[in-house]
Design a protein that fits this description.
- Chains A, B, C: It catalyses: carbamoyl phosphate + L-aspartate = N-carbamoyl-L-aspartate + phosphate + H(+).
- Chains A, B, C: Keywords: Pyrimidine biosynthesis, Transferase.
- Chains A, B, C: It is an enzyme of class 2 (transferase).
- The structure is a homotrimer.
- By secondary structure, chain A is an alpha/beta fold.
- The first copy, chain A, has 2 domains: 152 residues, Aspartate/ornithine carbamoyltransferase (Rossmann fold, 3-Layer(aba) Sandwich), CATH 3.40.50; 155 residues, Rossmann fold.
- The first copy, chain A, contains 13 helices and 9 strands.
- In chain A, the strands form 2 sheets. A 5-stranded parallel β-sheet of chain A has the order 7-6-5-8-9, with helices on one face.
- In chain A, helix 7 packs across helix 13.
- Chain A is globular, with a radius of gyration of 20 Å.
- Chains in contact: A-B, A-C, B-C.
- Chains A and B meet through helix 4 and helix 13 of A and strand 2 and helix 5 of B.
Chain lengths: 333, 333, 333
């Protein structure tokens, strides 16, 4: 924990104004810490911030449907007093008919003060960020980055443990294709002092470039294991992901492995009483419904924290101050 | 008409807070009466109530399109000062992809303060109501219930006659499959003292369980007739429904019967000068356009009253008081 | 320029209240001038007008998608403090199922204070305007009129030159099928004193009825030419449109002509330093992206001015005064 001078705090805040966030690398660790503190402030001061973005307009440009993410961005703006325009599916939109993303975004810049965009193609958010006259937040582009999901994950960990460092973080299931997992690992590595327990079948192991990032961090470590049941006892955080049948070469392997990666009350009995279970949702069957009532289940809380982080991010990029928030308080990093 | 003590009125009101409304059986007759009085109050005090739900968010989760119903729910919340998020068609939404209704509703509970849901499957609204942390209003589930349509019908009758009892209520057309008809009959039976004139071809007669409900009421009576022209003269209320060609075994029967169930100016001449014509809309050809300008045509007014009742219901379930409304005034029942 | 008495100004303004705008012929030139002055006032007084339409609801009934137009209408209402309901595609809506446009619009009149409608069929907006109890603005009906696009065009010309008369206006590309071009010419003819340079291939010449309108104006003149490069030097305004391949009888003609009608930096070098380039968007390749950074490129500014004119129009038809606006100031015509 470090304490900031008023000038430092003001600088970190002012440098967020007008920025686009395509990946979390667009934010410094100080800025991420500031957003986490803002999320925490907003959670406890919803009434105070409800006019922070009065008169602002968010455009949600969702070229593919992602209802959960779209409603989270929209709720965040509405809870800050702003308004929302947009579309939820390019197939019902005329924007894609022969018009470049750049042109669409330049048009929408004349309507909205900030844009949240989701697009099936990697790189679309970056193109949009370059073209727009207003901040663009990436709400997911292809197999690529989805920075506000990671902010939701970090805030949930922070809320449960009071910190995002000095933790044993287990990640379980499909660690090869799950972009949320990669982004969370990479971001935790920037803050340091995390031991990762990577729990997956051989077919779905963490890619080498992510392992490299852990090793390059200097302060983080990892182990790769196959079995959730064996590993669960040591974890502070368990981040579950879905194991999709399509990822396996044959059905026998899938059936053999599937249950290993399903979290149920029996496995929860082996876990610490303070462990937090996260999941980016939607869940299919990888977490048993019986686990939902366990106080360690944090995945619905995580949805709420994602919305709070989007409130923190939207207001910060717009340069709208949160009444009563003191940016010079200590930073959690 | 009965007069309530302040405590009674406050109790009826407070017991609505946080409730879900899947069918009208979820509401007591006192609560329905309170909602009718609120609808009436809102109609005459739109300016006073326009900030009653400031800062609230309604989620409209429409798994099948129903533009009329959705816009009514949304307008109701906006006219109370709240905001709206949601989707209008599950096919443009990602919510249904392998996620249970329970999970979707639990996610949305983190965004919205109240949910209005429409779903093609019977029972979906009940599942949602159990899972949600916020009130759920059923906006129609399959062939099942659609309670706010019935509230619209009741309020229209109340507004035209000052009462919903001691009336002769004709229901005309498809009385077998029309869920709005069944719900209206069942609810009027709870208040009592209505004589129903059930006007339909034999192929589309009122189901036995609905007749049973009339008989069980003790104070209501009914007659079944084939001919609108013969019956119209005795009616206070005429509730029209559509006779769909597909319901008939052969086209000859359909063609023979169709005109019998079309309301036109000639038939209107036989009706009382105070009769009220209701219809749940959309109408196809079962009410001639020439009838629209007749002051007895109440079906567009009914749309407005549906919106007013949704304002009454949404604010009540949220526990948001209507400024100036006195819940101790006499109840119309 | 003429100066109005307070009474004249108030009359022009009051006669707009409750009107529907299906074509620009629904507005007098005084009313168009008033709207241009209001657009200019709004541009410089966004903070003052942001509560002008508090509590109002706009319904956007878009029977075919037109994201750009819909978001412009919606943003306009939100920036005035109002709310928005509606649908963006009739295929996701239930409104069209067997219900007449008249019935739908009468239903929606019970929800909204004003309607913006787009429909694939010519005449749909006129039908809606007759049926509605609230003002209807045509957001495009078939190959027909799109009056708010023309208001955007006029306001952009007005903003660049301080007038919409005494100008040389070039229109380039498809002058046969482009409805925006015809509407702009017809409206400029009502104000008079414009010389039109009609730049198109023979296959896509301006229709005779539009030429007739120029000739009937008395004060306007025109010339028809084939080559943009030859004509560009004399233009104050260059209105670009797309030349669609499908319009040509054979591909050779298309390929031969296409480049003639593409605006690029080389052609811009031949133009006046004050020329304004307009385009209704979306553009495909008829304006090179290199032109975007030229200060004479006015097509993204035109998007913003379209939104401002929709603010002027929506508030005027609703009868909501713009705080601080003086309707007696001189009229630009």
């Amino acid at each position: 924990m470090t304490s900031l001078t008023a000038q430092d705090g003001a600088d970190i805040e002012s440098q967020l104004i007008g920025k686009s966030v395509v990946t979390l690398d667009d934010l410094t660790t100080d800025q991420i810490s500031l957003l986490l503190r803002k999320g925490n402030y907003i959670e406890h001061n919803m009434a105070k911030v409800r006019h922070a973005c009065d008169g602002r307009i968010l455009a949600t440009l969702f070229y593919e449907p992602s209802t959960r993410t779209r409603l989270s961005f929209e709720t965040a703006m509405l809870r800050l007093g702003g308004h929302v325009i947009g579309f939820s599916n390019a197939q019902n939109s005329s924007v894609s008919k022969g018009e470049t993303i750049s042109d669409t975004v330049r048009v929408v810049s004349n309507f909205a003060d900030i844009i949240a965009m989701r697009h099936p193609k990697e790189g679309a958010a970056l193109v949009a960020a370059h073209a727009a006259d207003v901040p663009v937040i990436n709400g997911g582009d292809g197999g690529h980055m989805h920075p506000t999901q990671t902010l939701a994950d970090l805030f949930t960990i922070q809320a449960r443990f009071g910190r995002i460092t000095n933790l044993v973080v287990g990640l379980c299931g499909d660690l090869m294709f799950g972009r949320t997992v990669h982004s969370l690992i990479e971001t935790l590595c920037r803050f340091g002092n995390v031991h990762f327990v990577l729990i997956s079948p051989d077919e779905l192991k963490t890619p080498r470039y992510v392992i490299d990032r852990i090793e390059a961090s200097g302060t983080c470590s990892y182990e790769e294991v196959h079995d959730l049941q064996d590993a669960i006892g040591k974890l502070d955080v368990l981040y579950m992901t879905r194991v999709q049948k399509e990822r396996f070469f044959n059905e026998d392997d899938y059936l053999r492995l599937r249950d290993t990666y399903i979290l149920d009350p029996a496995k929860m009995k082996l876990a610490k009483p303070t462990m937090a279970v996260l999941h980016p949702l939607p869940r299919v069957n990888e977490i048993s419904f019986d686990v939902d009532s366990d106080p360690r289940a944090a995945y619905f809380e995580q949805v709420r924290r994602g919305m709070l982080m989007r409130m923190a991010l939207e207001s910060s990029l717009l340069g709208d101050r949160l009444p009563g928030f003191d940016e010079t308080e200590e930073v959690a990093a």
